[in-house]
Amino acid sequence: MKRSLKVIANWKMHMTVEETINFFERLSLLVSLDESDVCIAPAFTSIYPLAQAARGTNLKVGSQNVSDHISGAFTGEVSAHMVKHAGGSFSLVGHSERRSHYHENSELISKKILRCLESFLTPILCIGETELEKNKNLTDNVLTSQLEQGLKSLSPNDIDKLMIAYEPVWAIGSGNVPSSEVIQNIHLSCRNFLEKKYGHEVASKIKILYGGSVSEKTIQSLLSHNDIDGVLVGKAALSPDDFANIIKLSRELKK
Ligand code: PGA
Prior knowledge:
- The protein has helices spanning 17-30, 44-53, 80-85, 96-101, 106-118, 131-135, 139-150, 180-198, 200-205, 216-222, 240-253, and strands at residues 6-10, 38-41, 60-63, 90-93, 122-127, 163-166, 208-211, 230-233.
- It is an alpha/beta fold.
- Helix 10 (216-222) links the parallel strand 7 (208-211) and strand 8 (230-233).
- 43% of the residues are buried.
- Bound molecules: 2-phosphoglycolic acid (PGA).
- 2-phosphoglycolic acid binds at residues 10, 167, 172-173, 211-214, 232-236.
- 2-phosphoglycolic acid (PGA) is lined by residues 10, 167, 172-173, 211-214, 232-236.
């Protein structure tokens, strides 16, 4: 099955509202935003202004996180419903920085996925092994357990509504990227796991993205593989010119 491309920016804790708008204006001069392949996850404060600026285009705006609660006395939290109503259409869930700095476990992550689905946000479940786990040859076990636990409360009918982002923790922000063959094999084993659990049709629909030090230099080899359906870009997505080049190259490769 042919899966459509996604190029997603994860801005982390960068970009004021003004910087967001300037970025958008520059990006829209550099690439067409008529297709629905470009997505940006800014900080919560920039979701609404970016979604407003992007009206009339097909740029998708989303969040980097959502609360595991629906609403209520949870000071400092933002719900999936609020993200949706601010103009969001997706959310990252379980990014490794959330898992490590904010102690998010699989229980919490699986609740967040449910909250996204209830509010019609596409959850993007982030999974990945640490360097230590990789060195101990535990990558497969870690990823399988993160998938199993993260998806455990979902109804089989909802599984194809989510995307998966494989982000080796040691590759994020480090400039070290596994070889594209290694990534392809890991994506394929994730897809095989999904196939065993949910069947071929569902597994073949799910987009599996790669994230971790993606740049203009690495994009070419990454997207030449069948099971790498797109990318999640951190640092290189903070410059509209670099991000535009990644988008252009990605479109060429996945034509
Ligand atoms: P990076 O970040 O591209 O800066 O490595 C990716 C991510 O954390 O999603």
